[in-house]
Each structure stands twice: as C-alpha cells, then as structure tokens.
C-alpha cells in the first residue's frame, strides 16, 4: 500500500498537491499539521496537510516530503472548511487564504530572510545548542541570511526546528519585521519621595503648599489612590483620579516632592480592574434581554443603538454569559485605532481572559495568541481583533461581536483574499453554531435590509446612556459665509465662536476634515499646470511642514517647486485643504491652545494611535484635528464640540455608496460630542445645506436615509439587490490593456445573460505606472451565482491562454466596496 498526503501551499494555486510519505509518517501525520516540502526547482515551502489517502495521482509522480514540522495540528478542520468557503466565494485560491491566515513565522520557506533581533551581546552563547550557535555566529558577520544559506551553513536540510527555537527565544526576526524597531512599551509612574512618608515631613510639606491649592489637593489624592490601589501608580491614573492636570504633577516632580519612574509594561498581560464592574441601565437591560430573545430565533442580530448608548457595555455582559458557558468569543473591530480603548475596557472587566490580535503586533505575539486559541486556553476566552482575527484556530466559538459593522475597512482590498470580514464571520459562526451580534449607530444598508426581510433580528437602543441627549447639529452655509466675508481661513464665524466658547469652559474640540496633507493640489496661476505624480494619475499633495509634494498612491516625493515646471512662472497657489492646513490655521487663531492631529501621517509606528488617543484623553490637547480615523467609535468624555469643515467632499465621491457613507461618517463624527453629562454641539460647514443627506444627518433620520438609498439601489441595480463582481485589469502598456479589457468584456457579455459594465477607466486610471481598467458584473439575486462564477473563471482561463494578454494582471473583487 502507498501512503499519500494532500498539501496546500502558501501560493496562488487553486489545487492541493499530493506527496508521498512512509507508513510511519502517515500514522504520525494528522490533518492540520505542517510539512516542509520541495516544490518547483529547489525551493522548500511550508505546506499544510488537508487530507490523507492512498490514491496515486494520475498526472505526476508524487515527491516525498522533507520533514514534518508539527507534533500536533496547528490548524483545525473548521478553519480548512472556512478557508475553502472564502476561496470559493471570493474567487481566489485556497493557497492565498492559507498564506494570509497564518502568522508569517508559521510559513517559512527557503528564501525567507532572517536577521538577528537583539544585540548579540545579550545572547547567552553558552545556552545555545550547536546549531543555534552556528546561526547566531553567521549573523554576527552578516546582517541577514536566507533559510537556504542556513541550510548550507548547518550542512542539513532540516533547519525549521532550529529556526523556530531561535524565533521562540526572540533572537531572530523575519524579513517583514525588519523595519519594525522593537520597543518595549514603557509606562510612566509616579511616587512620593520617601522622606515625605514620615508624618512630620508630610505635614510640613502640606503646610508649605497651602497656597498652591491644586498641588496640595494632588498630594492628598495621591495618598488616597495609594491606599486603595496598593501598587505602582501610573501618572495617567493619578491625573484621572485627582482631576488635576498633568502640569501639576510635573511641577511637583520639579519640586522633588514626586519622583517619576518608568516600568516596562508587558502588553500581553492584562490586569482585572475591580472597579470596572457596572450595572446596565434600564434601557440597556431591555436591549440585552431582547438580544437574548432574538438569539433564539435568529443566528444574526443587529443592535442598532445611537452613539454613546452604551453598546459596549451590552457586549460585555453578553460576552460574560458566553464565557460562563465555556465558549470562545471573537470581537471584531474595523480598525486598529479602535482597539486601544476597547482593550482597556474589556481587560479591565475580564482581565487576563482577553487576547488581542492585529497586524501591528509582532510575529511572536501573534503566534502566542494563535496557540492560546488553538488549545482553547483561558487566556483567549475573548479575542479582540481586526478582520484577520477571523482566521484564528477557534474550536468552540459561541459568539462573534462585530462592532461598527457598517465600516468599509471590514472589506479587504488587496491582496487576495478580498473578503468581507462581517460576511465571512457570519459563515464562520454558522459552522460553530455560534451567534453573531452586529452593532452600529448607522447600520449598513445591507444589514438593515436583512433585518427588513426577516433574516436578521433587530434590537434598537434610542437613548444615550445616563440621560445624555444627542448633540445639537447646526448647519453653516459656507457659500453665504464667503459671500459675506465671514470666513477666517476655512472657519466660519459660527464655528470659531463655538470653538472659543468650548475652550473657555475647559472642554475639548474635535475637527474633522477628510483629507490629509496641507492641500491636495498645487496650481500655477499663470498657465493652470498642476504637478502630477509621474507614475500615477493623481495630483501631488502639498505638505507644508516638510515643504514637499507627495503622491498618496506610491509615496513619490519631490521638494516643493519654486516655479512652474511648465511655464516657469513663480505664481503658484494651493487648492483645497487637508488636516495639516487646518492644524496650522488653528495654531495661528488659537496660539495659546494645544492642537493635535490624527491622520495616516501622524499615526505610523506601532503605538502611533495609542499615543494620540491617550494624549487627547489625558487632555494634553485642547483640539484634535483628524480624518475619518476619529469618526470611529472613540469615547472621549470631555469633548463637547465637533466641527465638520467641509461636508461636500464626503458627498461628492464617485461611488454608489457615497451618500450612505457620508451619512454614516457625519453621524459617527457627530457622535463623539457630548458623550458624558454635558450636551454636545456639532457644526457642519457645507455648500449644500439642503442636500437630502445633510438634512437626514441634521434630523438624525436613519430611516429616511435608508428608504431613499435602498430605493436607488433597487432602481440602479446595486446591492443588496444585485451582487457585484469587479474585475480590475492592469498593465503598463495602455494599448494592450485597452485591447485586452475589451476582449474580456466582449466574451463576458457573450456568455453571461446579466448586466456587464465597462471596460471603464476608473477615476484614478494609472497607479505606479500601471494603467487600470475595470469591468463590473451585476448578478441579480435570482441568477445562479455558482454558474456565473464558473463562467467568469473560464473566461479568465481563456484570457490567460492568449499570448499577448498573459502579462495583463487581472484581479477579482467579489462584493467590492
Ligand atoms: P457606544 O458604544 O454605544 O457608542 P459606549 O459603550 O462607548 O457607547 O458608552 C458611552 C459611555 O457611557 C461610555 O463612556 C461608557 O463607559 C458609559 N456607559 C455606558 N453604559 C454604562 C453603564 N451601564 N454603566 C456605566 N457607564 C456606562
Ligand atoms: Zn505655469
Ligand atoms: Zn504616485
């Protein structure tokens, strides 16, 4: 008898491959284990076993495996099933799903590059095994080496176990992590100098501070907190607890009353905070019970609750029930920026039962979470993550919470698999017999439609927590304001007055502008020339701080020109505005206030978001300017004013979802105002105050927005009535691309009896020197989806077999956003 295994590779290949193993290996190997296998000329890959059998393949002679990499399966059958569904539904290969599902150190290949992570002075060489020592030594003289080279150095092929040991010890680092400089998270603590622990001294000190009331107060609070915490005191905590500002803490440090010190904070250890217990309000309790009832009838329930209605607390109570029933819970968020606050809230409540999983975590941290989920450990009862957390090895899922379910970032754009995490999560839940709770103040049309047709349950929460009312929204017609000369830069008099008033009350302000940089164009006032990126079909964005022009698609940068490149005129001007310009204008209008900015340019690096969010929360900034990043679920208790500088560029997007999104964005940003106690205010500046969408925001009328948009969707054949598949074709030769896309279009039209649109030049028709064309296929809900996809696949196959089209890259996006 012959023994075979079926293996998938982390490559864009549809098929699995058959390898031969010995009888002993066959007995040892289980589905879900990894094997190192030769593939192609001389490369070694990590493959995953998805089946075992005795059937000799007809078309090729199976090769033998190199080695078995695992003692126990690291992937379970739920996952393999789920990956197959993703590959099938989103029209990609299972290899691509496999590759994006596993932490990268789990799929080493012979050309993976490793380098040393910490200064090798810190490596205790005596503790290393011989093989390990040889690798560390080699990396002493060479900054990085491939696994192939390591194989030569060790004189053997079996190198994965050694590499894995060194990775576990934290000595090595893999290619994609090289740019990540390792910084342990350091937290600042404060303690009173020992001398003041003597009562007389303390009394004396307090006396001497009798005029400095706040400092006096702070010291008393310090002792209170100390008595109650009995552990090192975070400066942040002291500030929160005492209600005085950080500057008072600083002055006591300067006076040498307090001493500041730092401790490394292990990110993956969370402490339970006993003060975090709470009771649900009557409204929340009703919603909670209604969710429970809905779960009896529906697999998916939508919690439609206004901003600051306390959805998070409802999630927490629900999660608690599932944990008590010994189930795993997955909590999906649309964006890494949001995890900070949620992790704080969940870990305070659940302590060490919470794990976090996202791409800013290092490989080792991700592997650790993977393993904890795999063994169903207590440390991973609740996993908080962005969309990729969906791929973890859950075996006992009870509940998936998807917060801010309307967010478009749940859809992966590039590379494949281009999946929608909400939809893929619903499928995953079904496999586990688990329930799904979708939460949003502004549900997606798709989800709300599913409620209407009875597929999902609905629970509504119309009140904010603690009798706080929704903010007042005021519209400002900027056309009129410009006409009356009531604008100062991009600020209307109304907005400026309100900012002034808010600041004078010691409250904070959020300002929203959906563009980063100083301005999106530079224009020559003599000839009208606008500098464009040489490789992309976009104008270059002007950055004033750096005095540069930059492309947002390929990072091409030039220094700001002093004269027009077309006519030499020096009369250059900027057009449009971004967050950087708003920040600068604010600095000159409010020179005494501190201003922060949160956008893609200021949040790079592992703790980019945390720093800004924490600083704002700690009131180190009076005003925070930002892009849509700050529209999402953040909870700041001292913000009472939100300003939207220009609502129009939200409305004028070339996308059938533009109005839905503009509504969601504005309601969400508005929802950051007045979340605790005081009523908030929102000011929206616009050229179109009578636009339907703006009026719907003004009256917070989700139902009207829904009815209007769903009507259009049906009329114009869009989701949820039609499924959309978009093909994107790219090539650096314009003519060839044009010809190829036309061919593709014609063949599709011939074979499909449904609407096919295109081939279209998208709004940005060239990126990184590649021209782009798109074809959109609209599939009515009564059409046979499987058959349509097969037709598309076979058209693609024919396309690839035509020599002059082979080099045109085609990507498929199912349910594109
Ligand atoms: P949402 O997620 O609906 O926007 P949050 O869950 O952030 O709202 O709640 C808004 C604010 O009200 C938060 O600061 C939260 O801590 C507070 N809050 C909500 N429910 C409770 C409760 N039951 N007890 C105490 N505080 C609550
Ligand atoms: Zn010019
Ligand atoms: Zn570019």
UniProtKB/TrEMBL annotation:
Free-text remark on how the cofactor is bound: Binds 2 zinc ions per subunit.
Residue numbers binding Zn(2+) 1: 524, 527, 564, 567
Keyword annotations: ATP-binding, DNA replication, DNA-binding, Helicase, Hydrolase, Isomerase, Metal-binding, Nucleotide-binding, Primosome, Zinc
Reactions catalysed according to its record: Couples ATP hydrolysis with the unwinding of duplex DNA by translocating in the 3'-5' direction; ATP + H2O = ADP + phosphate + H(+)
Reported cofactor(s): Zn(2+)
Span of domain Helicase ATP-binding: 292-461
Entry keyword annotation includes Metal-binding: yes
Entry-linked Gene3D superfamilies: P-loop containing nucleotide triphosphate hydrolases, PriA, 3(prime) DNA-binding domain
Its job: Initiates the restart of stalled replication forks, which reloads the replicative helicase on sites other than the origin of replication. Recognizes and binds to abandoned replication forks and remodels them to uncover a helicase loading site. Promotes assembly of the primosome at these replication forks.
Protein family membership: Belongs to the helicase family. PriA subfamily.
Name listed for the protein in its UniProt record: Replication restart protein PriA
Species this chain originates from: Flavobacterium sediminilitoris
Lineage: Bacteria, Pseudomonadati, Bacteroidota, Flavobacteriia, Flavobacteriales
